[in-house]
């Protein structure tokens, strides 16, 4: 219906024009911007060039030619996109309208996926007109095709896709990239993205919302938890942690939340369905504070993040979130709340500064299991055995 209405209006308009034009015997005016009548993949009409090529050349197994070979199972790989990013340029013989493009992710290693980019058009390859910009994009699956659309009735001879940031690291890969002409009445702007920049007392939060229907109250409360707890965690654990943080609300992520590449991603559906579970934020931002060296045990990393949620959480009661009582069959390596409760118990029984000590050593890459013996007079295994026998905490 949305698409039909403008079409009908257009037909009506053209009818009126024809009627009045015929009457005065003038030639029918042609709208040069609106002669795209059907959507069309125009990629094959252009010559593609890249500023960075695969080491084996354009026709190599992972060369740039694979980006436009109409096969979403082959890919283009660039080892290092450098500081200026990767520029994929298309030159058409005839001025061509483009209002949509498709990107297909590679077959492996999602850190190589493009995350931030711009699309622009040009008449001469010198002066560029911005047409579309995407930030914090996510490809939730391998060989997944995502379509992006913008409004453009201008015909350019040059288009370019400028990738400025990857999900993580510097190695780029993508399976396919296609350009499409779209009739102006069918043009839309998608996908939805809204980025709010909130700065308070030296900290900046980029709230990147990819879900058009995300609840404003949940957003405001997540922002409040961030600006309340992040300064506390910086102060108590790691004053050198990053001062600019991004939160991404992601509809295509069906989990709870995770931190990767220096920013936090929250499942849009999870947060919408669990509006009280706001201290997920406290747990996730602790991961940014942690930024542990390689080799940190995962169970301890997650145990400390939930310990922090237990101590600093603002809405744990509202979320019915608490540390579960000890149950036979548990182990300290179970991570999350089970490890967190054990950490509380060891602090109350032996060493009230244990978690801060562990956190500091983990960040410096100097954690060894002997630290438990040094700090408490008991090995980790012996501590757990004692905990199993009497796991009382205050
Ligand atoms: Zn975690």
Low-confidence parts: 1-30
Give the CATH class of the largest domain: Mainly Alpha
What structural class should be given to the helix and strand makeup?
A: alpha+beta
Q: If helices are DSSP runs of H or I spanning 4 or more residues, what is the number of helices?
A: 9
* Proportion of residues in β-strands: 15-25%
DSSP E strands, number: 16
Q: Profile the largest sheet.
A: 5 strands, antiparallel
Cα gyration radius (Å): 27 Å
Provide the succession of SSEs.
HEEEEEEEEEEEEEHEEEHHHHHHH
According to CATH, the fold-level topology of the largest domain is Neutral Protease, domain 2
Query: What is the overall shape?
Result: elongated
- What is the CA–CA distance across the termini? 62 Å
Largest sheet: spatial strand order: 2-4-9-6-7
Bound molecules: zinc ion
Q: What is the domain tally?
A: 2
User: Would you identify the CATH architecture of the largest domain?
Assistant: Orthogonal Bundle
